[in-house]
Design brief:
This protein is mainly alpha-helical. The chain has one domain: Orthogonal Bundle (Arc Repressor Mutant, subunit A). It is built from 4 helices and 2 strands, in the order ββαααα. A two-stranded antiparallel sheet has the order 1-2. Helix 1 packs across helix 3, helix 1 packs across helix 4 and helix 2 crosses helix 3.
């Protein structure tokens, strides 16, 4: 009988302070749960997200989405902070261009 390899899903998402600012990410990659959640919220399916990144499996994307759904408030707050910062930078850029 062939040996069946199983994956402990608890090993698919990691957090380390020195990588990606300590944000939860897919183990062995620099792809954060926040990034996967962002694509998901834009309407991409897990399969489309995995294909977009190429080096991610569908299982890894689902693990990230599971983490997102289990910690939605935290991840959504992080996404909102990122959006506000992007808007601030865009405003600054626009004002700098306008005044030059």
């Amino acid at each position: 009988m062939a040996e069946v390899k199983t994956t402990n899903i608890g090993t698919l998402i990691v957090q380390t302070p020195e990588v990606c600012g300590g944000r939860p990410r897919i183990a062995g990659t620099g792809v954060t749960v926040r990034r996967i959640a962002g694509w998901y919220k834009l309407g991409f399916s897990p399969e489309e997200i995995a294909k977009k990144y190429g080096h991610l499996s569908v299982a890894q994307v689902y693990a990230a989405l599971t983490y997102y759904h289990a910690n939605r408030e935290e991840i959504d707050a992080d996404l909102a902070t990122e959006d506000k910062e992007a808007e601030r930078l865009e405003r600054e850029y626009y004002l700098a261009r306008k005044s030059s």
